[in-house]
């Protein structure tokens, strides 16, 4: 597939910026710790579902100390409706315990340290670094993995290859919000089920759309 030119990439992100200058995560959180827990819980489920369970969970435990005191069994009761209950409750309990033991109860600000926490992979670490610490990271979820190559922003077929491609091609001034713009575009416009090309504000520069028109 033909990739977007540097000029087209700038045009693309200027349009995203005009549409949504300050995109925010759709997960509800109010501290670095609650953000971390919410992102860990969001694996293989929707942000809306996570928000439904964290509303009560965070009332009961919004710090690592309170979460450990709550215990894995109680955590599981709060999050049962989102699935993968045993694994997620175990991860939340154990990462909270490790934060207390190794990081003085604070969420660390490096990818390497974050990825030592149970349940925290590269994508989760990148989300926390970007949202909590304003670092120019590129978390690649299923939406971005699909959308970025599709529109011609970069090549790649794995999260890490797409992440590397985006880091190389997206200008630094857009990196703070780039993953939110792409994620929301994939979630609401360029959906996996049926892309809404007729209402897409980048359809004239999208390489997928241009390729289909030529054919």
Can you give a write-up of this model?
With 215 residues, this protein is mainly α. It is 62% helix and 0% strand. It has 12 helices and no strands. Helix 4 packs across helix 6, helix 5 crosses helix 6 (85-103) and helix 9 (142-151) crosses helix 11. The longest helix is centred in the middle third of the chain and has 19 residues, at 85-103. It is elongated and about 55 Å long.
Entry summary:
The protein is mainly α.
Please tag this protein with its features.
mainly alpha; single chain; 12 helices; 215 residues
Tell me the number of strands.
Answer: 0
Strand % is under 5%
Low-confidence region ranges: none
| Fraction of helical residues | 55-70%
Q: What's the order of the H and E elements?
A: HHHHHHHHHHHH
The radius of gyration is: 19 Å
Give the topology.
Elements: H1 6-19, H2 32-41, H3 47-60, H4 64-70, H5 72-79, H6 85-103, H7 111-114, H8 122-133, H9 142-151, H10 159-169, H11 172-188, H12 207-214
Helix pairs in contact: 2-8, 4-6, 5-6, 9-11
